[in-house]
Write the structure tokens for this entry.
Amino acid sequence: MRTLVLFLALPAVHAVTGLTGNWAVRDPRRDGTERRTYPDLKQEGSRITGHIRTGQFYYTVTESARDAA
């Protein structure tokens, strides 16, 4: 399994609701298809861990950082 360090810029809405849960992300491509990514995240305070599946690849989220902006 590969390891991915994930840096997230957390909008205000996520600061209130948190990121814990299973998510589905659709990324539209120019040719009309889309890439689907499935994060399974757990948020404990400012720490975010979990797993991400995109295509046939699986990543482990072991570190996270919040955008200071």
Notes: The chain has one helix and six strands. The two ends are 32 Å apart (CA to CA).
